[in-house]
Design a protein that fits this description.
mainly alpha; Fumarase C, Chain B, domain 1; Fumarase C, Chain A, domain 2; Ribonucleotide Reductase Protein R1, domain 1; two-stranded antiparallel ribbon; elongated
């Protein structure tokens, strides 16, 4: 073999390992690959990006404070910029189920950046006398303050995307509600006939629910802007130079374009992962609302001949391998499955959040993986729901009119005139005779004809005027 293709030998406190010549990670990453062949998954790209942003910021701050040679800092910065531009992403290889607290992930980043910086300075990968993963790339840092900060940055980025997705979905639902607002339909409570409601009111309520969830998630995400970099291993700040805590927040805010702030208590920010649990709780609440909404869409579109069929969802693919012509509400179904996964992730996160001991929660890697998964799949699913389902909803006006006219709960409008008990008797007779409430009233002459049209005005039943 030529020197450039021969395996290299690296050493750590546990011994030696042979590594392929072309990999940029080092011995600690290699050990993690051996130790954690668990899921076959890799870290979320947003977590890699956030970790590298921290390494870049730390190099610049350490250089400005005079504790890191400027030449080395520039090389680390250049290596970080390459990764941030999309290069070397295949070198971040540690399974999400790994060493507690994310040490393996942190060292994976340290080694990749060190080896690329070594190359940029004219050396060969593995020559850590030039740039060292711990001494230089990890300077003034610990996994214990780097990893939770990377979690915060990654979750902030994905939360921003989700909030925009929710706002777009709410807008689509709101526009659809205006489009169909004049269509009166039967309301249903307990899945039984209820007083009339306009389809626009029903869909408008979905828009409001989505908007409220967006605000709730935005509030929860704001807590993630409080970071504990400079706490290092236990919150005491050991090995971080004077001025580092202030400067790292400023530099990282510039790099990420986020308005970050230093934590009020470096010990608490290392011990507690409650901001992640809080955001996950918001995602779970969103998921419960979305499941409810998509279940309604499936119910309202059920049929076409044996269900409600008040609305039709866009046909996006054949629905059966055996029944010709069948079309299923697959987008709503997919969205429900995503929401169930998010609910399950929240259980993992809340369980892991209480599993920390003393100065550190070592369960952060699974919290990071499940939280970033929830943010990612919710954003993707809700974008598809908007584009391939909500935007294309159409209405069967005839079906809506038939149902509202045949709802026995129309008799509710008679309560002020004849009382609840007599109105209930009319409803019973209408059901027994198979007639509508209107027909029963007409047949029995209970209300004068000129008054009946006003009493049975289903559109007017859906309007509420303050002070009436």
């Amino acid at each position: 073999m030529s020197p450039s293709t021969q395996p290299r030998i690296e050493r750590d406190s546990l011994g030696e390992r042979e590594l392929p010549a072309d990999v940029y990670y080092g011995i600690q990453t290699a050990r993690a690959i051996e130790n954690f062949p668990i899921s076959g998954w890799k870290p979320y790209p947003s977590l890699v990006t956030a970790t590298v942003q921290i390494k870049k910021a730390a190099a610049l701050v350490n250089s400005s404070l005079g504790v890191l040679d400027a030449r080395l800092a520039r090389a680390i910065e250049a290596a970080a910029d390459e990764v941030l531009a999309g290069k070397l992403r295949d070198q971040f290889v540690v399974d999400p189920f790994q060493a507690g607290a994310g040490t393996s992930h942190n060292m994976n980043a340290n080694e990749v950046l060190a080896n690329r910086a070594i190359e940029l300075l004219g050396g060969e990968k593995g020559d850590y006398s030039i740039v060292h993963p711990n001494d230089h790339v990890n300077m003034s840092q610990s996994t214990n303050d780097v990893f939770p900060t990377a979690m915060r940055l990654a979750a902030l980025e994905l939360s921003d995307t989700l909030i925009v997705t929710l706002e777009l979905l709410a807008d689509s639902l709101r526009r659809k509600s205006i489009e169909v607002d004049q269509i009166v339909k039967s309301g249903r409570t307990h899945l039984q006939d209820a007083v009339p409601i306009r389809l626009g009111q029903e869909i408008g309520a979905y828009a409001t629910a989505v908007s409220k969830n967006a605000r709730r998630i935005s509030h929860a995400a704001d807590e993630l802007k409080e970071i504990g970099l400079g706490g290092t291993a236990a919150g005491t700040g050991l090995n971080a130079p004077p001025g580092y805590r202030v400067r790292i927040v400023e530099e990282l805010s510039r790099i990420t374009n986020q308005k970050l702030r230093a934590t009020e208590d470096y010990f608490e920010s290392m011990q507690s992962v409650s901001p992640f649990a809080g955001l996950s709780s918001g995602l779970r609440t969103l998921a419960t609302d979305v499941v409810r909404i998509t279940n309604d869409l499936r119910l309202l579109s059920s049929g076409p001949n044996t269900g409600l069929a008040e609305i039709s969802l866009p046909a996006v693919q054949p629905g059966s391998s055996i029944m010709p012509g069948k079309v299923n509400p697959v987008i709503a179904e997919m969205t429900g499955m995503v929401c169930f996964q998010v609910m399950g992730n929240d259980l993992v996160i809340s369980t892991a959040a209480q599993a920390g001991q003393l100065e550190l929660n070592v369960m952060m890697p699974v919290i990071a993986f499940d939280l970033l998964m929830s943010l990612t799949i919710l954003s993707n699913a809700l974008a598809v729901l908007r584009e391939r389902c909500v935007e294309g909803i159409t209405v069967n006006e005839g079906r809506c009119s038939w149902y509202v006219e045949h709802s026995v709960s129309l008799v509710t409008a008679l309560n002020p005139k004849i009382g609840y008990a007599r109105a209930a008797e009319i409803a019973k007779r209408a059901i027994a005779k198979g007639k509508t409430i209107r027909e029963t009233i007409e047949d029995e002459g209970l209300v004068a004809p000129e008054e009946l049209a006003e009493v049975m005005d289903t559109r007017a039943m859906t309007d509420y005027e303050e002070g009436q």
